[in-house]
């Protein structure tokens, strides 16, 4: 079992990193192989909406985003982490998300599980964590949960012991969900709606976008 943590914060040892590391350490203690990717050190090119990923299954830009996406496909579980930056995730994480249009159209994270952590200086950490989970679900994953915390400064969490305990519990829960191949019935209606919407889209575009059409055909979804 492999769990990938993706840190969207530009601070490699900041509050978000602290939470993410606690999730990954707990998952590792529960038997998972873990890896952390720091987007602040990655070469990430903005999406330009060219559609190449839908045509050939891979972006025209051969930068670190493509390697990170390969790691996502190789993982059983993915944990996203971001601080709140002006009511959103960081630019680094949003850039990676934007480069995952093919993941959404082809539901490439189907069968995988996701979790999220978020931190804030004042408020909004729960909303950002839910945004991260929503991205993973739109790529086909089922999500286990999220945790957030407030920071008193860039290297200090409010009630740090409790915040880290929640993160550790999330790591154990993620490992258990993967091991049990757990189903989340409350997420199924939205999954069904997303599947129907993407099927219509892929069918409408047909072989004009051969990579996504072939993926759906090979999965037996068309």
Oligomer: single chain
| Helix count, DSSP H or I runs of 4 or more residues | 9
Quickly give the CATH architecture.
Answer: 3-Layer(aba) Sandwich
Radius of gyration: 17 Å
The SSE order reads EHEHHEHHEHEEHHH
Structural class: alpha/beta
Secondary-structure map:
Layout: E1 2-7, H1 15-29, E2 33-38, H2 52-56, H3 64-74, E3 77-83, H4 91-98, H5 101-106, E4 113-120, H6 125-138, E5 142-153, E6 156-157, H7 160-180, H8 188-205, H9 210-218
Parallel strand pairs: 1-2, 1-3, 3-4, 4-5
Antiparallel strand pairs: 5-6
Structure description:
The chain is an alpha/beta fold. A 6-stranded mixed β-sheet has the order 2-1-3-4-5-6, with helices on both faces. The chain has helices at 15-29, 52-56, 64-74, 91-98, 101-106, 125-138, 160-180, 188-205, 210-218; strands spanning 2-7, 33-38, 77-83, 113-120, 142-153, 156-157. Helix 1 packs across helix 7. It has one domain (2-183): Flavodoxin domain (Rossmann fold, 3-Layer(aba) Sandwich). The protein is 48% helix and 18% strand. It is built from 9 helices and 6 strands. Helix 6 links the parallel strand 4 (113-120) and strand 5.
């Amino acid at each position: 079992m492999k769990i990938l943590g993706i840190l969207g914060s530009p601070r490699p040892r900041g509050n978000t990193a602290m939470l993410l590391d606690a999730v990954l350490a707990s998952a590792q203690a529960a038997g998972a192989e873990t890896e952390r990717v720091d987007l602040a050190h990655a070469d990430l090119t903005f999406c330009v909406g060219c559609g190449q990923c839908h045509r050939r299954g891979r972006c025209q830009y051969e930068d670190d985003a493509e390697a990170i996406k390969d790691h996502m496909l190789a993982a059983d579980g993915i944990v996203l982490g971001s601080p709140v930056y002006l009511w959103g995730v960081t630019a680094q994480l949003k850039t990676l998300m934007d480069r995952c249009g093919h993941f959404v159209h082809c539901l490439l994270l189907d069968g995988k599980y996701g979790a999220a952590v978020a931190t804030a200086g004042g408020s909004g950490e729960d909303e950002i964590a839910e945004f991260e989970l929503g991205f993973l679900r739109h790529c086909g994953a089922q999500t286990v949960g999220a945790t957030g915390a407030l920071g008193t400064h860039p290297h200090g969490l409010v009630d740090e012991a409790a915040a880290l305990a929640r993160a550790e519990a999330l790591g154990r829960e993620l490992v258990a969900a993967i091991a049990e191949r757990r189903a989340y019935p409350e997420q199924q209606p939205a999954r069904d709606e997303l599947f129907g919407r993407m099927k219509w889209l892929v069918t409408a575009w047909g072989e004009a976008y051969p990579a996504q059409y072939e993926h759906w055909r090979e999965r037996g979804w068309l």
